[in-house]
Design goal:
The structure is a homodimer of 506-residue chains. The first copy, chain A, is 36% helix and 19% strand. In chain A, helix 4 runs antiparallel to helix 6 (93-106). Chain A is of the alpha+beta class. In chain A, the strands form 3 sheets. The first copy, chain A, has a 7-stranded antiparallel β-sheet, sandwiched between helices. Chain A is globular, with a radius of gyration of 24 Å. The longest helix of chain A has 21 residues, at 435-455. Chain A is built from 18 helices and 16 strands. At the A-B interface, strand 8, helix 11, helix 13 and helix 18 of A face strand 8, helix 11, helix 13 and helix 18 of B.
């Protein structure tokens, strides 16, 4: 094994660690600095420590090579340098608990990592932390058809759970672009959302039971899969969306449901943003929509130019809404068409198409889902924000106006889960602008956008979490009192501050 | 006003307060006894304090007469003697905050009370507490058709919200026997469930935003109605089901939804308990059931003997399942009938009826809903417990066997929300047994039932909360570590221990 070798990247990183890090770590617990120098400064773990880790997980499951550091130490944000002190890959819940207890004894900071598809740096280990990768906790057991639940290790891939559900004639409805590699433990820790939230809710709604190892080294078995349990505070809810700062999700009892039948997709061209909301209102009061997404004409143009898709219809529109619903019966399509005619009569909708086959459904979905990949060549600035759905039209105009005023050469691409008030703001880098300069300008934009988010009582992180990327902006959404209370709650579960320190808040 | 008069009941209660109370209150915060003698010992509030309360809420809204104490100081448990120190009825959020700040300054324990329909003593003020009744915070505002939300004061009656939703062409789906008097703030504080949980979830799922006044006197505005907000820990979740021990719910943004269309009810006679689960499984995989309830033949016999209802069909069955679903289209009833035939072929179902009109639907529902009132003449021992749905049949047999063995003369009546694994155990008092003796025996039964609940990984309180009634049994469902963590979380929000002390845990 290569466990005894030290990271070359870490050695070079040693001097690159920003000076602010130490004070950052100390600010939470001034009385007790909990990082040993080797841990925070990115020095190699010594042989004694490596041996202790190996005694828990086995030699093969301790990694200190630079490749493992690069693989396991970052998520999809890509703006942080991975620099874990060591990577361990436990195979059991008991091993995770033993690792946390070792970390307590050795004063080691821990980062738990799942599928590493996060977009806020929540699973980044850039400061010599002990990285506990949960990939090997990937077993599924105790499926029960009546309860419609299955127990998943934290490392189960989202798609693995989706496929399992399908085999059992059931459905796991939380779905998003990274379902092929994101893991259940990570989904829970970030309360992952995605494209079906309007009907099925967030990951929070599908966690019937949760096993976690807290920063105290305790193994908690929360709720045990029960549908109803009003016996005291529901601690499970804190770990959902807790981004690994309170403890490590090691196992979850996931709820499944009836699969949707005969899905249909409508793509509608709408006259303006406020008309989209009228369309939403019209449809949601009559049909259970499984999705209500939107994208702009600019986004559509990029997708059409990029690949093999055609425009859904020729009539131009500034924005498009994508609606999905179940064809519960033969009446449903008729109802959808009646509502469509009403929307046209009202002047909200200029044209539209409805899928007549699975192939058409998939292609219409691609108009929305291919946007992210299509625009990636412009290295876009991205932001995941939300306001009340009813406030989205005003909010968008406001953001556009501020960005256009300051940087008229910036191209803005909007898309997102507008039925939930969740929009993804994308600003494309002009080809002739250097990356550094673009990033600097985007930092200015960020603050302005978050100020607007605050003015609209919105969220600086609708579904991606806070992690490292947004912690400086948490106060735009949460009050000082709330943040203080969060810190105190962290102290309850993680009194030594070893669990994913520096994430969400300092 | 009668505010200056002291409770006669409290005076006589003074000597009746159990000696254990003082140590009970001190156990949480040994270093700082927070009850003044007048508060814990049930002495009258002195004139200075009454004047301070009146300065906040006005003379008319401070009550110290015995009738107000009797009305506002208890819930539906009826086993505790109401003895608040004073009752205040604030009219605004600001007044509630000022009252909490006064309580902090004066070291007064607070009990918040809503519709007082709780069944666990969570809103009981039996120890001279300051009782803050939220009845006057009963305004509704800021309805938004697109967001489908409305902001409710804590004192809004459940039925008031249901009716409001109906007027707007929408639906508030949390429904239960006490909807005509329970209040939204109380529903949230107990995470109320009811008869539609299988489709619509608990109250937790309908709280888009929450304003609370913590034990620190802080006013928190949690989540602001957003559909998606992953910006740090979701503190809102702690107050939902927190039973007023962390703070007082003063206002909530409630989510509404599309109303169900053309509901139908099936009542099926089933051969045995495990067959009920096969029926559930068969139907839930094809239809979105809005309810799946059950009751026993004994329960049915009582209801038929008591009133004006007929048996749904003549074929006898040991248990009955009541299923409700939307007639989304003409196909739905056909599907329901096909599934019914399948269940009969499998030997699970012996007979059944389906409603053909709203009147029939209501009468079929009454077979289930009239049980509680019907059996009330036997002063039943009641328990609200849950296990995984798949384990209900075994669990019921186990409980019956233990009770029958010990007390063969006890008659057991089962009913409940079996689709959620939530059963209500009722044991009727034999007519020739004295109440005292019955209660003593039931205490023995309780411990045995909770031991079985524990063995089945179930909950000692599925939907009624813990309050005073079940706090001694919390450890049958929650581990020592969980309870310790809950106590620490209470300390974060309520460091002085003034919020509903002695509820959930000591």
């Amino acid at each position: 094994m290569g466990a005894k070798g030290a990271y070359d990247t870490i050695r070079t990183l040693k001097n690159a660690v920003p000076a602010g890090l130490l004070s950052l770590c100390n600010s939470a617990h001034k009385s007790q600095p909990y990082f040993r120098e080797r841990n925070i400064m990115g020095l190699e773990f010594d042989e004694h420590l490596i041996a202790k880790l190996a005694a828990i997980v086995g030699d093969e499951q301790v990694r200190t090579d630079s490749q493992s550091a690069a693989i396991y130490g970052i998520d999809w944000t890509r703006v942080y340098q991975p620099a874990p002190g060591a990577v361990v890959l436990p195979k059991t819940v008991e091993q995770v608990q033993a690792l946390v207890q070792l970390a307590i004894a050795e004063n080691l900071a821990i980062v738990a990592s799942g599928g590493r598809t996060g977009l806020s740096g929540g699973a980044v280990a850039a400061r010599g932390e002990l990285l506990i990768a949960l990939d090997n906790l990937n077993g599924m057991r105790d499926f029960n058809a009546i309860d419609r639940t299955v127990v998943c290790g934290a490392g189960v891939i989202t798609e693995q759970l989706q496929n399992f559900a399908e085999q059992e004639g059931l459905f796991y409805p939380v779905d998003f672009a990274s379902s092929g590699s994101s893991q259940i433990g990570g989904n829970i820790s970030t309360n992952a959302g995605g494209i079906k939230v309007i009907r099925y809710g967030m990951t929070r709604d599908w966690v019937a039971g949760l096993k976690v190892v807290t920063g105290n080294g305790q193994l908690l078995d929360l709720n045990k899969g029960l549908k109803k349990n009003n016996a005291g505070y529901d601690l499970r809810q804190l770990f959902i969306g807790g981004e690994g700062t309170l403890g490590i999700v090691v196992e979850a009892t996931m709820q499944l449901c009836r699969p949707p039948v005969d899905l249909s997709v409508l793509v509608l061209g709408v006259s303006d943003m406020s008309a989209i909301m009228d369309v939403l209102n019209t449809y949601q009061n009559k049909l259970d929509l499984t999705a209500f997404e939107f994208f702009s004409e600019r986004a559509l143009q990029k997708v059409i130019a990029h690949g093999d898709l055609n425009r859904p219809f020729e009539t131009p529109a500034e924005y498009y809404a994508l609606l999905e619903f179940e064809q519960i019966s033969a009446d449903t399509e008729e109802l959808a068409m009646t509502l469509f005619e009403h929307c046209v009569e009202q002047g909200w909708v200029v044209d539209g198409v409805v899928s007549q086959s699975t192939a058409q459904l998939k292609n219409l979905w691609r108009l929305r889902e291919d946007i992210s990949e299509t625009i990636s060549r412009w290295m876009p600035y991205k932001n995941d924000i939300s306001v009340l759905p009813s406030r989205v039209p005003d909010f968008l105009l406001n953001v556009e106006s501020v960005v256009n005023q300051q940087y008229p050469d910036f191209e803005i691409i909007w898309f997102g889960h507008i039925g939930d008030g969740n929009v993804h703001l994308n600003i494309l880098k002009p080809d002739d602008l250097a990356m550094d300069e673009f990033q600097q300008r985007c930092d200015v934009v960020s603050k302005q956008v978050f100020a607007i988010v605050e003015a609209y009582d919105g969220s600086v992180s609708a579904e991606h979490g806070v992690g490292l990327l947004k912690k400086d902006y948490l106060s735009y959404t949460r009050s000082k009192e709330e943040i203080d209370l969060m810190k105190q709650i962290k102290t309850v579960f993680d009194p030594r501050g070893i669990m994913n320190p520096g994430k969400i808040f300092d």
